[in-house]
């Protein structure tokens, strides 16, 4: 902004303030929810569930912009989504990393739900 000599508020086109505010709310919600979710889930599961954002972006593109989604793409998205859900909700073994680190993840369901919420913020 310094290089182009622009002001962060005055140079926004009229009528676009609400979109900038919505983008700001989504970005802040994404950051704070992600930071809280790192306390509830192991990073492996958080990164697996966090990679669902392209799926939600495709769904939003279909409903908002009318983009085409082929049956093969839809089937692949459902299959990958089910695989991620299966990996995220499996129980850990007795010699899981929690036993070595001392951390227990008692709120795994809440953590996975918040991680999905993070992906919705990213897709939005």
Distance between the termini: 25 Å
Query: Counting H and I runs of at least 4 residues, what is the number of helices?
Result: 6
Number of strands: 0
Q: What amount of the residues lies in strands?
A: under 5%
Characterize this entry briefly.
By secondary structure, the chain is an all-alpha fold. The chain is built from six helices and no strands. 10% of the residues are buried.
Your description of this structure?
The mean pLDDT is 80. 10% of the residues are buried. Helix 1 (17-37) packs antiparallel against helix 6. It is built from 6 helices and no strands. Helices cover 65% and strands 0% of the residues. It has 124 residues and is mainly α. The chain has one domain. The longest helix has 21 residues, at 17-37.
Topology of this structure?
Elements: H1 17-37, H2 43-50, H3 53-65, H4 71-88, H5 97-101, H6 108-123
